[in-house]
Amino acid sequence: MNYDGRWRKWLIVVLGILLLVIMGITMGGRSNITYVERLTGNIITPINKVFSSMGNFVSGRVTPVLEVWNIKDENDSLRAENESLKTELMEYTLDSKELAELRELRDSLNYLDRMRIDNYVSCSVISKDTGNWYNMFLIDAGLSDGVTKNSTVMNGDGLIGLVYEAGDNWAKVISIIDNNSSIGFEMRRVDDDFDGLITGSVNSVIKGQLFDPQAEVIVGDKIMTSGVGLYPKGILIGEIKEVIIDQNELLKEVVVEPSVNFKRLNKILVIPAKTNDNE
Amino acid sequence: MKTRYIFLIALINFIFQSTWLQFFRLNGVLPNTSLILVVVFGALYGKKEGLYMALFAGVFQDLFLSKVLGVNLLIYVIVAWIIGSFEESLFKDNFLTPLVLTAVSTLSYHAIWLGIMYIFRSSIDYNLMTRVLILETIINGIISIFLYGNVLKRIYGYGLR
After folding, report:
1. Where are the domains of chain A?
2. What does the pLDDT average to over A233-252?
3. Between A68 and A117, the higher pLDDT residue
4. Which of the four pLDDT bands, split at 50, 70 and 90, describes residue A112?
């Protein structure tokens, strides 16, 4: 072995260790990304945007043809859902009148309006993770649109995840199933208000615990964010798939199936993270 | 091969892999074309080209779609380095060469990946593991045979046997 070869070997080892250090530092996402990343992102994301919109266009034309056999079933189930929604709507119109009266009362008492979210940023997914383990993706909105780290990402189906890192006009999003941070949730049924915490874990399901071991939870219950933690209140998370009672009867565990299909994301909404001057 | 061409190929591959290829997920599994490119370049063009491809492909994936910086870069560089080291002693026209190289690279990619994610205590879907490993290894192997055969014909003038 000559001198040159040995030198190179050590260089590789040092670079490997350096990379491991970089990995450690960048784990969990950073609030500010480096200038190089920002620059390359600004160049590449527009290209990605063109390609993904072309792909979506073609897919939007081709998928209905391929799924023509399922349309009848889907139609039937939608009709049934429509019926039940109509009856629900009747009840809610009555409730909303009452709510309006209560809101007036609240305004007169000068309560803070925490629930209303009116600064949505609507954007689309421009590229998706190239690996097979995580569901990370890029969106075409960034710091210039007010999207910062830890902003909430959702779509019509429910909660998707968090902004992991943000660039000028693009941002990296991590889904709730991959993130280690907890989400505070509550049941969507009106007559109970049991709270709990869930954390993304394995098998594209989310696991969590209820604070109250006596809480009555049924498989099939819908849950939504409670406003505790990073996520705003009232976003649908998913459906309870399994209730596990701990042997010590100390905690009731739930397994939640997200209502969002993470493999088919296109248009999404971002709710910018609360800044300090808003509070 | 000129470095700027390698850069361009890596860039185009990244864009395709993250946009159009997403529509062709088989059972949720996406073939890792970056890894295939690294293997093919390392085995056919040589160590230097393989390492450049590893560098560009790894950096693109890490910057934009990775949970931590440097994971893909590290794995690709290791793969390119090892394949490039015994590039001269490979039977280049045997169809088993790309198949075995890609299969072993895919498996070691996931082994290193899982190791690193375990070190950083990141949540990993272990139930996905067998599905991802088997399916991705097969898909990668099949794609690599076609790509390898074409590149082989370009450089040496004869195809796979």
Report:
1. 68-108, 118-273
2. 78
3. A68
4. low
Nearest to A128 among B18, B113, B126 (CB): B18
Contact call for B74 and A131, based on CB within 8 A: no
Phi, psi of A209 (to 5 degrees): -125, 150
- Of B22, B29, B32, nearest to A128 by CB-CB distance is B22
The complex's ipTM works out to 0.73
The nearest CA of chain A is from the CA of B158 a distance in Å of: 32
Q: Does B17 touch chain A (CB under 8 A)?
A: yes
- For A157-202, what is each residue's pLDDT tens digit? 888 888 888 888 888 888 887 766 678 888 776 566 677 788 776 5
Rounded average pLDDT over A100-120? 66
Provide the shortest C-alpha distance from residue B96 to chain A (in Å). 25
Cα–Cα distance for residue pair B101/A10, rounded to 1 Å: 26
Q: Which of B8, B106, B125 to mutate to test the interface with A (most CBs of A within 10 A)?
A: B125
For residue A78, give the amino acid letter: L
Strands (E), A37-168: 121-128, 136-139, 152-155, 158-166
How many CA atoms are closer than 13 Å to the CA of B29, on its beta-carbon side? 17
Contacts of B29 in chain A (CB under 8 A): 132
Distance CA B92, CA B39 (A): 13
List, for residues A36-95, the tens digit of each pLDDT value: 777 888 888 888 888 888 877 887 787 778 778 888 888 888 999 898 888 888 888 888
Assigned CATH class of B3-13+30-156: mainly alpha
At the fourth CATH level, the homologous superfamily of domain A118-273 is Rod shape-determining protein MreC, domain 1 (2.40.10.340)
Is the Cβ–Cβ distance between A155 and A176 less than 8 Å?
A: no
